[in-house]
């Protein structure tokens, strides 16, 4: 892991965090106070519940696609030179790595233009 990737990950967490931190300062005004309290209740209640359910459903679909595609390669049936011979594309097509889980997230957003859809 290089430091560039770690720094990008930390910045992607810090930017929304600073936005939420600045919302606390808006609670002192009468016009924005009730609105900001409502936003925090939505984030902690509804959106957190949706996130938990979303992760459970995406993980379940990822497991189902793993079971469906575990014996296939990009071209169709699995034809390997040796019994334990694998490659990265084969892992992607059989939903065995993190990119496959992210592909499921893309599927829920309506992006079905993937090279191994049949």
TrEMBL record:
Organism superkingdom: Eukaryota
Segments traversing the membrane: 20-40, 47-69
Signal peptide coordinates: none
One Gene Ontology biological process: calcium ion import across plasma membrane
Single Gene Ontology MF annotation: calcium channel activity
Alphabetized UniProt keyword annotations: Membrane, Repeat, Transmembrane, Transmembrane helix
Gene Ontology cellular component annotations, sorted alphabetically: plasma membrane
Protein name per the record: Uncharacterized protein
Organism listed in the record: Adineta steineri
